[in-house]
């Protein structure tokens, strides 16, 4: 369900809005979810639809790139833009713009190798770069460090419990009986594309069943517990980031007042 400015709305109120096919899929998922997704304004909702779409696009770009999967010990990067530290993370070199560093990962992907958590953070940064002005991105994310789940506070990443999976979310496939000799396969961070598809760095774009099947091949001997999709979601700070979106690039939602009926049950307000 979607609530805008304290009013629950449905898809009949979204007219004359040029949604892309992916945005329509995301909107449908939000509307059909039992949980209420509340927004202070139409701007916030439209920004989230756009950013979720760009997260999916960035994940597809990384999936089809030449960037490799590896553990921190063997990670590598383009040394023109990044300095690899002793932990295997990538520190942005002095004088390099954050936007240039992120874009290079996709432009010269053959020079990079990292594990799945770092891949997700890279996808998030790339998506935000696509929706915010470059100067704003560089101001928000100066001195980038790419390492595991380390990220700039302005990215607003938050993990919560629940199975309200929306396209553009990062989900986690847990492998409870992983082979101790390959601990990197204890789980897989994956971007949910919708329509039953997920992207995990090192596994690729797969269905839920194939993700689990592949992780199950990485279990210890005589394991009995299957890998599974954890009931949690990891998301960027959509509402906070929307405050940096330029007004001229925001798409409006038009509500049809001619068909609007407002009803109240207790303290709840409903639109019909």
UniProtKB/TrEMBL annotation:
Domain of life: Bacteria
GO molecular function: protein-glutamine gamma-glutamyltransferase activity
Alphabetically ordered keywords of this record: Sporulation, Transferase
Pfam families, per database record: TGL
InterPro entries registered for this protein in UniProt: Gln_gamma-glutamylTfrase_bac
Any one GO BP annotation for this protein: sporulation resulting in formation of a cellular spore
Annotated protein name in UniProt: Protein-glutamine gamma-glutamyltransferase
């Amino acid at each position: 369900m979607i609530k805008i400015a304290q009013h629950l709305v449905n898809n009949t109120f979204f007219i004359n809005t040029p949604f892309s096919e992916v945005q329509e899929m995301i909107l449908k998922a939000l509307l059909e979810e039992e949980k209420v997704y509340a927004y202070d304004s139409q701007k916030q909702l439209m920004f989230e639809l756009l950013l979720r779409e760009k997260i999916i696009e960035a994940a597809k770009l990384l999936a089809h790139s030449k960037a490799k999967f590896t553990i921190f010990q063997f990670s590598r990067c383009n040394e023109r833009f990044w300095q690899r530290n002793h932990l295997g993370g990538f520190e942005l070199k002095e004088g390099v713009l954050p936007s240039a560093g992120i874009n290079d990962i996709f432009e010269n992907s053959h020079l990079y190798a990292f594990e799945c958590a770092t891949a997700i953070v890279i996808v998030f940064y790339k998506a935000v770069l696509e929706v915010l002005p470059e100067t704003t991105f560089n101001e928000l994310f100066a001195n980038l460090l790419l390492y595991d789940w380390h990220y700039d506070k302005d990215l607003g990443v938050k993990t919560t419990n629940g199975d309200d999976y929306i396209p553009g979310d990062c989900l986690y496939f847990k492998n409870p009986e992983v082979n101790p000799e390959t601990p990197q396969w204890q789980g897989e961070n994956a971007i949910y594309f919708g329509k039953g598809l997920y992207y995990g760095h090192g596994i690729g774009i797969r269905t839920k069943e194939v993700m689990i099947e592949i992780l199950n091949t990485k279990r210890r001997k005589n394991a009995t517990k299957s890998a599974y999709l954890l009931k949690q979601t990891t998301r960027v700070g959509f509402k906070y980031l929307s405050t940096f979106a330029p007004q001229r690039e925001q798409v409006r939602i038009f509500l049809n007042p001619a068909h609007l009926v407002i009803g109240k049950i207790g303290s709840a307000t409903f639109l019909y």
